[in-house]
Backbone:
């Protein structure tokens, strides 16, 4: 079982590093990591029976994984295989001074608050729960106060890492429902995280200048229900959420900023819905209206699909079934193709068909998302744009009809 858990944790850390590099809790070459590599390699060589694996090592590993520092310790790790759940019990070192959360001075310990749990990032597909009794400090100035824990914010039901990850999933998902499904949360839990994120955004908004905003919509539940979110793109946080996706909703979002703050906004990433565009033009006329890479990529995919559809109809009218059954393929990343799919796709790709040229243009363009140097990116854009404009692949040609908006990308 130890080896199984070892594999689960290793895969979990790899997954985090790949999909959420900001949250990778453990440098891959740390001592804890080497321990687990050793365990996994031992397992692969069939040495499970001879592996020495102590309770101590497991606790040490989770201490490193969670970044738990003294005086907190990992007291117990409980793996519930049937429920696909890991519970990590954290304990306070007896005799350690408790810091008052109000004035910050070291105090004697008064007692322990009742046990609480926090949902943490899954380790592989194991729901991971932290469990602890948090000490209460006996402060001479402020009275008895529960100390702050390093892994969560006061009142949170989830750890900081989980909340940040959940917000990132939410910002990337098309709907709140999709995000809730991916995270294994109920609507209420997502709502709780979102509200706390907004509260954080509000409490910090006074202090920091905002320059790059995003306005985006998400559908939630079923039917035509939408929320609109205002985000700070530089710091990846939610500033406000309102119901609806009308111009009034977008204006309500803008109204949560002061006039001075509005005047400092340099760019707003906004989907090309007229309602959001109009609100942004009215409230921050100096700001550039731009698209983020997510919407840019979606538009490009859509353009390739339009080219494919038109060409497929033309071919079918002439009795040619070359493009039949290929609808999805042009949208996939070729990195994920099987060998056979890749071979068939390669032949189509070199066929000189319009859809193949459109696809190549899209693939070329996506290089822009990762360009770090402005000068190089501008040259690249000019070249690709020139090429696309001359290609006569109409759906791909960026539409500059909406005023000053260009293809500017924010991530
Ligand atoms: Zn105090």
Residues:
């Amino acid at each position: 079982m130890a080896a199984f858990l070892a594999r689960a944790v290793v895969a979990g850390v790899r997954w985090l590093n790949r999909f959420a590099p900001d949250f990778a809790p453990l440098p891959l070459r740390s001592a804890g990591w080497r321990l687990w590599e050793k365990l996994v390699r031992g397992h692969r060589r069939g040495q499970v029976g001879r592996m020495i694996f102590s309770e101590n090592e497991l606790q040490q590993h989770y201490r490193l994984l969670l970044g738990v520092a003294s005086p907190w310790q990992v007291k117990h790790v409980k793996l519930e295989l049937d429920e696909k759940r890991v519970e990590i019990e954290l304990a306070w070192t007896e005799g350690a001074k408790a810091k008052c959360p109000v004035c910050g001075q070291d105090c004697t310990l008064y007692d322990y608050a009742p046990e609480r749990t926090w949902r943490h990032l899954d380790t592989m597909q194991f729901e991971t729960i932290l469990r602890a009794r948090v000490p209460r400090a006996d402060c001479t100035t402020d009275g008895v106060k529960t100390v702050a824990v390093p892994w969560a914010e006061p009142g949170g039901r989830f750890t900081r890492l989980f909340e940040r990850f959940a917000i990132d999933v939410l910002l990337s998902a098309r709907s709140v429902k999709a995000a809730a499904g991916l995270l294994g949360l109920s609507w209420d839990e997502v709502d709780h995280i979102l509200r706390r994120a907004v509260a954080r955004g509000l409490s910090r908004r006074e202090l920091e200048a905002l320059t790059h905003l995003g306005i985006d919509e998400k559908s939630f539940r079923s039917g035509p229900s939408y929320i609109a979110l205002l985000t700070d793109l530089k710091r990846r946080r939610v500033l406000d959420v309102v119901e609806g996706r009308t111009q009034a909703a977008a204006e309500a979002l803008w109204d949560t900023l002061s006039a001075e703050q509005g005047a400092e906004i340099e760019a707003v990433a906004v989907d090309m819905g007229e309602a959001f565009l109009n609100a942004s033009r009215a409230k921050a006329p100096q700001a550039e209206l731009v698209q983020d890479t997510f919407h840019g990529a979606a538009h490009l995919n859509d353009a390739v699909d339009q080219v494919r559809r038109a060409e497929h109809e033309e071919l079918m009218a002439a009795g040619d079934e070359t493009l039949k059954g290929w609808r999805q393929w042009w949208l996939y990343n070729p990195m994920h193709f099987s060998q056979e799919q890749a071979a068939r796709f390669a032949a189509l790709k070199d066929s000189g068909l319009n859809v193949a040229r459109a696809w190549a243009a899209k693939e070329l363009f996506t290089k822009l998302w990762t360009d770090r140097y402005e000068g190089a990116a501008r040259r690249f854009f000019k070249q690709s744009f020139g090429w696309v404009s001359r290609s006569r692949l109409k759906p791909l040609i960026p539409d500059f009809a909406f005023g000053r908006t260009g293809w500017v990308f924010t991530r």
In short: DSSP finds 13 helices and 13 strands in the chain. Residues 293-317 form the longest helix (25 residues). The two ends are 42 Å apart (CA to CA).
